[in-house]
Design goal:
alpha/beta, seven-stranded mixed beta sheet, single chain, 741 residues, seven-stranded parallel beta sheet, Dihydrodipicolinate Reductase, domain 2, 27 strands
Length: 741
C-alpha cells in the first residue's frame, strides 16, 4: 500500500467508468475514511463525465498514469476478460485491488495473483456483493445461530431474463463462449453457496437447453448442477433469457429450513414444533406467511422512506453492493481479514470451473476481418448495419448490387450477413465509433452515399449531445467533404403526434416538434439531430434525406415496443390512452426496402426530402397485444388508461419525488404523453409516390411478418372473428421491436 497513515483516508482510484462504476462511486462517496482520487478509462470522455457527476478531480487514460498518485486501492470495474491483466498491472504498480466478480477466469491466474498480492503486502479481494444481499445475509445469520440445526443442503434457482438476448445483441462477453455465462451470472449463487458450505469437492453438470445465436455461436440457456462441498451438498437450476424471474436460495437443515427470495428480498422459514401434525402444519403456513408479510412490509417501508427523503437507498442490489464495498474498506482500515479475499475468490472460481469443465467450447469460427481495401465506385457506407433494421437493409443493398461498407465498433459476434459479405468481398468492414469524428471521417472516405442507422445515446442529455447530435454532425461534415448523400434514419418520435397537433393526417414534409424541451431524451435527441442536419443542408449544401420509420415490427426481437404502450412488466402493457385507434406500424423488411431505394436512387431530386415510413393497416395497440398473446401463448395483457388519468398519476409521482428532495425530478410533460398516443394517421405518400414503395399492408400478411408466424396462419384472435381453424403452429421466436419510436 501507499504511505497513507491509518488516520488519513484510503486513497482510491476507479478503473473503468461504465455502468457498474456509478454504484461504486455513489457508495464510496458515503463511505467513511475513503477518498476517490482519480478515475481511469481509455475512453476519456466517459471518465470525464463520471468525474463531473461525482466531483472527482483527476482523470487518466491508463493504470500507468495512476502510479504517481499515491493510490492505496484500485476498484476494478471492467469486463471479466480484462481482469487478470489489469489486476496484475495494479499490483505491479504497488496498488491494492478490489475487483468486480469474478476476480479472474481461472484458478491458476487467481492463485498467482493472490500470491503476488501477499508478497507485496497489498490487499486483493473480489466484489462478491451477493453475499451481502439483505435476505441472504439474514438467512446466513439465522443458519449460524443454529435455527435450522445442522446445515445439510442448499438449493438454488436462478431463472432470469437477459436484455442482450432479447435485443439480439450477442456481442457481449458473456455470449462469446458457452462457459462465459457461468462466470458472468453464476458467480453470485456460487459465492453464496461457498459462504454457506465452503470449498467445492465435486460437481456434475447437465445441460437442459441450448441454442445457436449465430452460426457456430452456442449458448447454453439452461443448466442443472449437483455438487458436494466441505460442509454440505448443493443443487442449482440456472436458466438465462427467461421471461419470468425467479431467484431463490433454500437451505435445508436437520431441524428446519429457510428460503430467501432474492428477487423480492423476502425470507421465510420453517422449524419443528412440539404440536401434533395438524396444528404443526397450520403453524408452519401461518408463521411462513407472517415472515413473508414482515419482509414485504420492510421492502415497502424502505422504498417509501427513500422516496420521501426519510431514508437511504435499501433495494437489495444496492444494499448488497454497499455492504460488500464498505465491508472491504472497513476490514482494510481495521487490519482484519478481507471479505472475499484472494483465497475465497479462488475457491468461488473453482465452483465456476467445475460447472463448465465438461462443457464443449464454442465451434464458432474466429472471424479475422480482412483489410477493407479502397472504396469502390458507388460505395455505400452503412453506420449501424448490425442492428435490427441494419442487417435487413444490408441484405437488401447487396441484393440490389450495391457495394457496401459496414462501419462496426467490433468485429466479433457480427450478423451472418455481414460476416459472409466480408468474406466474399461484397462488404468492406471498417472500424469506427459514432463518438469519434476522426474514425467517422475515415469510414466515410470515398463514399457516394452514407446511411446512418446508428443513434447513440445514453442515460443523460450530455450523452445524446455527444453521440446522437455531435456524432451525427461529424458524419454530415464527412459527407460534405466527400460530396456524399446522407440518408439519416430518424424516427416518428421526432414529430409531435398528439390529438391537438393540428392535423388528422401527417404529411412527410412536417417538421420536428418545435418544443423539444418537453420531450424525453431520445425524442429530443432526434429532434436536435434533424434540426442540425437541416441547417447544414441549408448553409453547407449537405445532400440530406431523412427517413422516419414508425412503430417497427418484425420477428426475432422482444415484444415490448413503447409505441404500443408503457410496458410496466414484460407482459403488461398500459396503453397511451384506451388503445383503440390505428397505430403507424411498419415491418422491418419494408423499412429496409425503403431505405435501399433512398440509397440507390439516381439523381439529386431526392435531396431535401423526408419520408415517413408507415403502413395503412388499421391495427390498434390493443389489437396488436392481443395478436401477440394468441401467437406466443404468453400471458400478455393490454390495460386501457385514459391519458388524463396517466398524467394525474405521473404528477402524483412527481410530487412524491419533490417532497423526498429529488432535485432532478422533472415535471411530467403533458405534451410528450399526448404525443406518445400516436393519434393522427400518416399519409406516407412520398415513399409510395417518389420511391414506388409497396409495403405489406394486407392485415393477415402484415401480422405474419410482424409476428414471424407462418404465412397464412391466422391467430386465435383472428379465428374468433373469421371462424377459421388455427394451424396450431408454435412460434419459433418472439415478435418485435426496434427502438425507432
Amino acid at each position: 500500500m501507499s504511505s497513507s497513515s491509518p488516520a488519513s483516508p484510503t486513497r482510491v482510484a476507479i478503473v473503468g467508468t461504465g455502468f457498474i462504476a456509478d454504484f461504486h462511486l455513489e457508495i464510496l462517496r458515503d463511505t467513511p475514511d475513503v477518498e476517490v482520487v482519480a478515475l481511469c478509462d481509455p475512453v476519456l470522455h466517459r471518465a470525464e463525465s463520471a468525474a463531473k457527476r461525482f466531483g472527482v478531480s483527476k482523470v487518466v487514460a491508463s493504470i500507468g498514469e495512476l502510479a504517481g498518485l499515491d493510490i492505496d486501492v484500485c476498484h476494478l470495474t471492467v469486463p471479466p476478460d480484462l481482469h487478470a491483466r489489469l489486476v496484475r498491472e495494479c499490483l505491479d504498480a504497488n496498488m491494492g485491488v478490489f475487483c468486480e466478480k469474478p476476480l479472474v477466469l481461472t484458478t491458476k491466474e487467481s492463485r498467482e495473483l493472490d500470491e503476488l498480492a501477499r508478497s507485496k503486502n497489498l490487499p486483493l479481494a473480489a466484489n462478491h456483493n451477493a453475499v451481502f444481499h439483505p435476505a441472504f445475509a439474514e438467512l446466513k445469520r439465522r443458519v449460524e445461530a443454529g435455527e435450522i440445526g445442522k446445515l445439510e443442503h442448499v438449493r438454488v434457482t436462478l431463472s432470469v431474463p437477459l436484455r442482450q438476448l432479447d435485443a439480439g445483441d450477442y456481442s457481449h462477453w458473456m455470449f462469446r463462449e458457452p462457459q462465459n455465462i457461468v462466470f458472468e451470472q453464476a458467480v453470485h449463487p456460487f459465492s453464496q453457496i461457498h459462504a454457506l458450505i465452503g470449498k467445492l469437492e465435486s460437481c456434475t453438470t447437465t445441460l437442459l437447453g441450448t441454442r445457436e445465436l449465430f452460426p457456430g455461436q452456442i449458448f447454453h440457456e439452461r443448466w442443472q448442477l449437483a455438487a458436494k462441498a466441505e460442509h454440505g451438498t448443493a443443487e442449482l437450476h440456472l436458466a438465462f433469457g427467461r421471461s419470468f424471474t425467479r431467484n431463490t436460495l433454500e437451505v435445508l437443515g436437520s431441524d428446519g429450513s429457510l428460503e430467501a427470495d432474492l428477487f423480492h428480498d423476502h425470507l421465510a422459514g420453517e422449524a419443528k414444533t412440539q404440536w401434533l401434525d395438524f396444528w404443526n402444519s397450520f403453524l408452519a403456513g401461518w408463521r411462513r406467511g407472517a415472515q413473508l408479510r414482515k419482509s414485504a412490509k420492510t421492502v415497502l417501508t424502505n422504498y417509501l422512506k427513500l422516496t420521501l427523503g426519510m431514508g437511504r437507498r435499501e433495494d437489495s442490489f444496492f444494499a448488497g453492493m454497499r455492504g460488500s464495498i464498505q465491508a472491504f474498506h472497513k476490514a482494510l482500515r481495521d487490519g482484519q481479514a478481507l471479505p472475499a479475499d484472494g483465497k475465497a475468490a479462488t475457491e468461488v472460481i473453482e465452483w465456476c470451473e467445475a460447472a463448465v469443465r465438461n462443457v464443449e467450447a464454442s465451434k464458432m469460427e474466429v472471424f479475422e476481418a480482412p483489410e477493407p481495401g479502397e472504396p469502390r465506385d458507388g460505395e455505400v457506407v452503412v453506420i449501424g448495419g448490425t442492428g435490427f433494421i441494419g442487417k435487413r437493409t444490408i441484405a437488401a443493398l447487396l441484393a440490389a448490387g450495391a457495394p457496401v461498407t459496414c462501419v462496426v465498433r467490433r468485429t466479433h459476434s457480427l450478423p451472418p450477413i455481414v460476416v459472409e459479405g466480408a468474406k466474399s468481398g461484397k462488404i468492406r468492414l471498417v472500424r469506427g465509433d459514432l463518438e469519434n469524428a476522426e474514425s467517422m471521417a475515415q469510414a466515410v472516405r470515398g463514399a457516394s452515399v452514407v446511411l446512418q442507422l446508428a443513434t447513440g445515446g445514453g442515460s443523460r442529455w450530455e450523452d445524446f449531445e455527444r453521440s446522437m447530435i455531435g456524432g451525427t454532425s461529424a458524419v454530415a461534415d464527412a459527407c460534405i467533404a466527400e460530396d456524399a448523400r446522407l440518408v439519416f434514419v430518424s424516427s416518428t418520435a421526432a414529430l409531435y403526434l398528439g390529438h391537438d397537433c393540428g392535423t388528422d393526417l401527417v404529411e412527410d414534409n412536417v417538421g420536428p416538434d418545435p418544443q423539444p424541451s418537453k420531450r424525453p431524451l431520445y425524442a429530443r435527441g432526434k429532434i436536435a439531430a434533424e434540426n442540425a442536419l437541416g441547417k447544414m443542408a441549408k448553409d453547407k449544401g449537405l445532400k440530406l434525406v431523412i427517413a422516419r420509420p414508425g412503430v417497427v415490427l418484425g420477428p426475432d426481437t422482444p415484444l415490448q415496443h413503447s409505441g404500443l404502450g408503457l410496458w410496466v412488466r414484460d407482459n403488461h402493457c398500459v396503453g397511451w390512452g384506451v388503445g383503440e385507434h390505428p397505430l403507424p406500424l411498419v415491418l422491418a423488411d419494408d423499412v429496409a426496402d425503403a431505405l435501399t431505394s433512398m440509397v440507390v436512387h439516381k439523381g439529386d431530386d431526392i435531396h431535401g426530402k423526408s419520408f415517413n415510413l408507415c403502413v395503412r393497416t388499421p391495427i390498434s395497440g390493443r389489437e396488436m397485444v392481443e395478436e401477440m398473446r394468441a401467437f406466443t401463448k404468453r400471458d400478455l395483457h393490454f390495460h386501457a388508461r385514459p391519458m388524463v388519468r396517466s398524467q394525474i398519476m405521473e404528477i402524483g409521482k412527481w410530487i412524491v419525488k419533490k417532497v423526498g428532495g429529488r432535485k432532478d425530478a422533472e415535471f411530467p410533460s403533458w405534451r410528450d404523453l399526448k404525443s406518445r398516443a400516436l393519434v393522427p394517421a400518416f399519409s406516407a405518400r412520398a415513399a409510395r409516390e417518389f420511391l414506388g414503395w409497396k409495403p405489406v399492408e394486407e392485415r393477415e400478411a402484415f401480422l405474419d411478418g410482424a409476428l414471424g408466424r407462418k404465412a397464412g396462419a391466422e391467430s386465435e384472435s383472428s379465428n374468433a372473428t373469421n371462424g377459421s381453424a388455427s394451424t396450431g403452429d408454435e412460434p419459433k421466436s418472439s415478435p418485435i421491436v426496434s427502438s425507432s419510436h
